[in-house]
């Protein structure tokens, strides 16, 4: 890690595997100064040093601010930088950023790794990681995953699958990396349980006794994402003291979500709740370039 004027927490791949972490919420739950939000059941939502955000996410240093659930199957480590960061990453919130560092091919030889996990709610997932040298100066890596989603809430379910081929070429003083990722995520949107003030003038609190109850309509509360993410990175040495690094990311994200959610108890019927509905059909295409000059003059 380079010296930066910020507090940094790094979650390594070893820790991700040791604690069976599968989501950004799993990672950030153990990082000081961060709080995981509900995200309306369709996206990563965090609070960094008191600043709520769903946009301060990066992938290998380039902005990844589309609202969706990010997977960790192809991630080498997660970096959490706390505090203002305009001088390092440009525009963004003052609480900090979350940067995912992608797995890259290596020339260390053929390596095949797989994992299977399950929990007591019925969720399970498969993941595969294959690294293979192609020649003396090129290597290929393939990561893939499939997840069957479930939790303690009635009617919740879904699936997510993704694949990420990555090619790396060593051209002497220059190194080129080309990555393509496909993600498909379809799930019921679980927004948790509603909150209500127990006494007049008191702050709202989640209602009790309904831990497993699904507040919504299973056939309507849905969220889906299909994403195509292409990334190219070029690193090289211009002189003995001057390096060049360029990363270009193109993402095509097709997302929808619909929600029926409670917004308050029915008048005179505290055991019943009024409901509201939301329908969004956003489609996002993003182009995120990043260039870095680094060097030292004496």
Automatic annotation (TrEMBL):
Keyword Signal: yes
Subcellular location: Cell outer membrane
Keywords from the named record: Cell outer membrane, Ion transport, Iron, Iron transport, Membrane, Receptor, Signal, Transmembrane, Transmembrane beta strand, Transport
An annotated Gene Ontology molecular function: siderophore uptake transmembrane transporter activity
Membrane-spanning parts: none
Main location: membrane
Residue ranges of every copy of the TonB-dependent receptor plug domain listed in the record: 3-97
Signal peptide: none
Highest taxon of source: Bacteria
InterPro entries assigned: Beta-barrel_TonB_sf, Plug_dom, Plug_dom_sf, TonB-dep_rcpt-like
Family: Belongs to the TonB-dependent receptor family.
Official protein name in the record: TonB-dependent receptor plug domain-containing protein
């Amino acid at each position: 890690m380079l010296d930066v004027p910020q507090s940094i927490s790094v979650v390594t791949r070893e820790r991700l595997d040791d604690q069976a972490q599968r989501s950004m919420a799993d990672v950030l739950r153990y990082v000081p100064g961060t709080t995981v939000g509900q995200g309306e059941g369709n996206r990563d939502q965090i609070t960094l040093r008191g600043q709520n955000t769903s946009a301060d996410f990066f992938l290998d240093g380039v902005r990844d601010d589309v609202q969706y659930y990010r997977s960790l199957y192809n991630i080498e480590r997660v970096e959490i930088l706390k505090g203002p960061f305009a001088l390092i990453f440009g525009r963004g919130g003052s609480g900090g950023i979350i940067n995912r560092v992608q797995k890259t091919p290596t020339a260390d030889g053929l390596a095949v790794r797989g994992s299977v996990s399950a929990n007591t709610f019925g969720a399970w997932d498969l993941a595969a990681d294959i690294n293979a040298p192609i020649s003396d100066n090129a290597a290929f890596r393939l990561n893939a995953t499939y997840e069957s989603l479930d939790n303690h809430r009635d009617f919740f379910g879904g699936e997510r699958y993704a694949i990420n081929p990555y090619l790396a070429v060593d051209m002497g003083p220059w190194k080129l990396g080309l990555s393509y990722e496909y993600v498909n995520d379809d799930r019921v949107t679980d927004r948790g349980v509603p909150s209500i003030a127990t006494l007049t003038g008191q702050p709202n609190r989640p209602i009790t006794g309904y831990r497993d109850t699904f507040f919504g309509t299973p056939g309507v509360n849905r969220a889906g994402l299909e994403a195509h993410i292409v990334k190219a990175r070029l690193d090289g040495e211009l002189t003995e003291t001057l390096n060049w690094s360029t990363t270009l990311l193109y993402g095509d994200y097709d997302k929808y979500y619909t929600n029926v959610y409670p917004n308050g108890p029915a008048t005179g019927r505290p055991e019943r709740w009024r409901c509201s509905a939301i329908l969004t059909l956003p489609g996002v295409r993003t182009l995120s370039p990043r260039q870095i000059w680094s060097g030292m003059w004496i």
